[in-house]
Amino acid sequence: MREEPNFKRKYLFLVILLLSLGLFLPLFYYLHLRPIKQGVVYHDIMKSYPEKYQTYDQLLSDFNYALSYDSLANHHIRRQMIYISAYITKKGLFDLEGAQRFLNRTLAEAEKELEAEDENLEKVTLIINFYYDISKIAPSVLPRLEAMIKKYMSINSGYEWLYFKLADVYMMKGNYDGAFEMIERAVSQNTMNDQKQFKLAVAAVLVSRDDIVKSALDVVRRIRQSEGDSEAYDKEVFLTEAEIYLIAQAYIKREDFLKALQYYKRLTRISPENASYHFDMAMLYLALNDNEKAIREARRASELDSFNYADKVDRFISAIKR
Q1: Strand, helix or coil at 239?
Q2: Which residues, in sequence order, are bridge partners of residue 234?
């Protein structure tokens, strides 16, 4: 009779041990073994990429298998899918077998990644940039992208990058007033930044705010003069060649062809052998009803690059002389 309590204690201990193992083993598997197995699969994918894969369908199949482990390491796999998708969009590989399906699955996984951790700004930036790249070839994602940016602006109102990215979205939609407002708000947080002031100037061109164009470019000039980097810029307006081109394009969108022409003249002074600048000037002169100068600039483009412009210029001049 004295051994009965001992037996009960042993039996109770055994029950507790089994229950503990029943709870511990699944937890150990989920926290340790599953991530390890998933990591092995992921390592094999990256070790074999891109040589092993003939199509993006094959690559997607392996990524799906890795994601099927559904462990805490999912975010590493999703991040790599985003990097590969960014490569597809950058290189324009949309027609390759499985590329579209890979992009669509990556979009779905990116959404899950955002749901998992909203406060990680590095991850939010990566995913928003991915959506932005996709929107260039699939405008249908623009509403989702816009809503995503606005959501994170409400969470991180001081993160000015979001204002610039929303401005980019508005530019794509042709909402120049919205773009100008976002850039103006972002620049107000840091006025002594030449790149941001330049973006403000371009946006101001599009909404016919010439006062802001002038003041923003004045700030750009002062900043760059203080840095003493005059050799990198056109001395007349203290802008790079690429920046002058962007302002010229903004004036074309605004249909202020005379102002656009002024900037193109600066471009041809910087790069007089650039045939595309001369042909663009021909188009501007035509829009300004100056056919003689239009023909002159078109012929100059053909002289500089007959391979790309000879036929185009012949058609252009023939259309003018009809």
Answers
A1: strand
A2: 239
d(CA 114, CA 125): 11
Residue 228: pLDDT over 90: no
The packing angle between helices 306-321 and 291-304, to 10°, is: 160
- Contact at 8 Å (CB) between 71 and 38? yes
Q: Which two tokens stand for residue 309?
A: 């412009």
Contact between 176 and 203 (Cβ < 8 Å): yes
Question: Following DSSP, what letter does each residue of 263-302 receive, concatenated?
Answer: HHHHHHHH-TT-HHHHHHHHHHHHHTT-HHHHHHHHHHHH
Q: Which residue has the higher pLDDT, 247 or 112?
A: 247
Q: Which residues, in sequence order, are CB contacts of 189 under 8 Å at separation 6+?
A: 158, 160
The more confidently predicted of residues 27 and 49 is 49
Please, which residues have CB within 8 angstroms of residue 114's CB and are 6 or more apart in sequence?
123, 124, 127, 148
Tokens matching residue 315:
């058609």
Is residue 112 within 8 Å of 132, Cβ to Cβ? no
- DSSP E strand stretches across the chain: none
d(CA 176, CA 319): 33
Of 224, 153, 154, nearest to 193 (Cα)?
224
Mean pLDDT score across all residues of the chain: 87
Mean pLDDT of 131-157: 92
Phi, psi for 239 (deg, rounded to 5): -120, 155
Angle at 223 between CA 222 and CA 224, to 5 degrees: 95
Two structure tokens written together for 23: 């709870």
Cβ-based neighbour number of residue 204 at 10 Å: 23
* In the predicted structure, residue 36 carries a pLDDT above the cut 80: no
The token pair that represents 156 in the structure block: 């991180």
Rounded to two decimals, what is the model's pTM? 0.80
Kindly write down the DSSP assignment for every residue of 94-119, as one continuous string: TTSTTHHHHHHHHHHHHHHHHHH-TT
CA distance 143 to 188: 26
- Residue 147 burial (C-beta neighbours within 10 Å; 0-12, 13-18, 19+): exposed
